[in-house]
## 1
Amino acid sequence: MDAPNERDAVLQAHAQNHAIAALLAVKPACIVNARFDCGELTLWIARDDIRPVCRTLQKAGYNFLVDVTCVDWYPSEPRFQVTYHLLSHSLKQRLRLCVMVDSLDTEVASITPEWPSANFYEREVWDLFGVRFGGHPNLRRIMLPDEWEGHPLRKDYPVEGYR
């Protein structure tokens, strides 16, 4: 991650952004890091704060969850980066939220109560990466057979599968 002074510089430079203004008004500490690059704003959010952050951003005008995906940074820790892409039609702004998850505690709160469309995205991330979404209404495999062992998009997953 970048140095905290970069976070503060980005937050200060883009304080007029609806997402940043809303989050700073409610809980400034929820933003772990921030980057504005190539015209896109990315906010790293504390893992325990993802649901309240999503509720706050909905109230701030971000009305559409585009997708949820994951990156495995193995062997680095925290290992997984769960990424949420949000869109505000009225503001004509996109926003990327990232939550870092450790390899030993792979659970992050489900955002399906805020965005029901997160259901299949979270199931896909769990199926392929093994990141659990606490409070998900139906967390089960979506792409692979129920008897499949492991999570094939993890970087330490054997190329030919488990034998």
Note: The mean pLDDT is 93.
## 2
Amino acid sequence: MQCELCGRQASLTRHHLIPKRTHRFGVVRSKYSKTELNSLIAYLCKPCHRHVHRTLKERELAVHFYSVELLRSHPEIEAFVDWLKDKPDDFLPRLSRRKKT
């Protein structure tokens, strides 16, 4: 299998398109059935999965970025995927340090 974001043949992780911690929110419960909440999953390589969670908060994922197509439409994720897709399958980018606030 290949990563649904970058297309690389890498070790994949399961990304819940609607994060489990958001299942209790009314806006999420009214939009999806229990079956949908538990079955909407994307298979992402570790770098893409990590970047998605570093870029977007769980509530944003549940309300605005609940599909692979919507994730791809986010400018920061799109830029990361464009950069990563040509790297070797075993390439793991180093994490940048978070800005201190």
Note: The first strand starts at residue 12 and ends at 16.
